[in-house]
């Protein structure tokens, strides 16, 4: 990846490249991220929870094709809604091998019932709008797993038929991670 990055940016006049070992300041974001990505445990990652005072957060992370048009569409779709509902937008776009992840963290005061309700309303709007654009959510809070799962309905629900078949074969009583990612055992599926 370094070759692709270097070759893409090297022609920009005045460009400078830094590696984590080049920047040994007391706190440097590049070094901090490099250590985090290596698995060095840190509690500083949780400081963002202090932003809203109540320490709650929910992630919304739709996935799309890797195109500039999809990146711009997702950015405006999500950031405008988040702000419309009165929250601060904290997001990043991450490119995987075949997909673009729009990782958005919504921080809220979990002790405030009005704010929790507003967050719930926002999240459901985001799910509907992303699904309408064909964007799938790849990770979510347990509260929304069934809601997200319901948006995956390609080919008359073939994915869920496969999930149900495997779950029933391996965990017929539905005791292993019940409901994780919207996958329930047959005894709880109807409920």
What does this structure look like?
This protein is an alpha+beta fold. It has seven helices and five strands; from the N terminus they run ααββαββαβααα. The chain has helices at residues 2-9, 29-37, 68-84, 113-132, 145-149, 154-170, 186-189; strands spanning 56-60, 62-64, 90-95, 100-108, 136-137. Strands 1, 2, 3, 4 and 5 form a five-stranded antiparallel β-sheet that branches. β3 (90-95) and β4 (100-108) form a beta hairpin. The radius of gyration is 20 Å and the shape is globular. 15% of the residues are buried.
Number of strands: 5
Tally of helical segments: 7
Q: What's the story with the biggest beta sheet?
A: 5 strands, antiparallel
Approximate shape: globular
Q: Helix share of residues?
A: 40-55%
β-strand percent reads 5-15%
Distance between the termini: 47 Å
Which class of secondary structure composition applies to the elements?
alpha+beta
Which segments are poorly predicted (pLDDT under 50) over 5 or more consecutive residues?
none
Mean pLDDT: 88
Order of helices and strands: HHEEHEEHEHHH
Rg over alpha carbons: 20 Å
